[in-house]
Design goal:
The chain is built from 7 helices and 7 strands. A 5-stranded parallel sheet has the order 2-5-1-6-7, sandwiched between helices. The protein has a two-stranded antiparallel sheet with strand order 3-4. It has helices at about 15-30, 50, 65-75, 115-120, 135-150, 150-170, 190-204; strands spanning about 5-10, 30-35, 80-85, 90-100, 105-110, 125-130, 180-185. By secondary structure, it is an alpha/beta fold. Helices cover about 40% and strands about 20% of the residues. Helix 5 (about 135-150) crosses helix 6 (about 150-170).
């Protein structure tokens, strides 16, 4: 296979990263593989559920980013990898992995992927999805209640204690490393189309 092209898509929690990634996947199909930073949350088998639920999942230390860096280097080297599987409902990694083969385009997505220099340096293009904080919170409530079995109270507590302060400390400052900023997330069809045209040119 020819050279592998790595696209980083960052942005705050519920900013619209998944929507943009889905659009790209629809357009490029088999040429793309998506690797999520969330898959690399550290395992905490030593902690009971109650303690795991109170951990700060929005701090860079919550992730095994070194393993992700190693995995992306291997994909760039045309080697296959096994990505961990994280289960939000139990706040822990499962015993399963997902086997990933190299593709022309690797999309790396997550709230903190531009915060880490080692990870950032593997990316050929860096995208930051920017969405209003109130909008992100509303989306997060809808998502976490329906998909992750959380109560509204627990979501708001987590948002106030870790999500918002970590966004201000780590996520927002990482925006300065982006090559492209897409305001309004998945609603910004023009911004998404510009990104997709760029990817098409790269694949040619």
């Amino acid at each position: 296979m020819d050279s592998v092209y790595v696209v980083g898509i960052a942005g705050g929690s519920a900013s619209g990263k998944t929507t943009i990634v889905s659009r790209i996947k629809e357009a490029f199909g088999e040429d793309i593989v998506v690797i999520s930073h969330d898959s690399y949350y550290k395992a905490h088998d030593e902690l009971p559920f109650d303690e795991r639920s109170r951990l700060n999942y929005d701090h860079p230390n919550a992730f095994d980013t070194d393993r992700m860096i190693s995995d992306i280097k291997r994909l760039k080297n045309n080697e296959e990898i096994d990505v961990p599987v994280y289960d939000y409902t139990i706040h822990n990694r499962t015993d399963q992995t997902i086997h990933v083969v190299p593709k022309k385009v690797i999309i790396v997505e997550g709230i903190l992927i531009l915060e880490n220099a080692g990870l950032r340096n593997l990316m050929d293009i860096k995208v930051f999805v920017e969405t209003d904080a109130d909008e992100r919170l509303m989306r997060r409530i809808r998502r976490d209640v329906t998909e992750r079995g959380r109560s509204v109270e627990s979501i708001l507590t987590q948002y106030a204690e870790t999500v918002k302060p970590m966004h201000e400390q780590f996520v927002e400052p990482s925006k300065k490393y982006a090559d492209i900023i897409i305001p309004r997330g998945g609603e910004n069809l023009t911004g998404i189309n510009i990104l997709m045209e760029h990817l098409k040119n790269m694949l040619r």
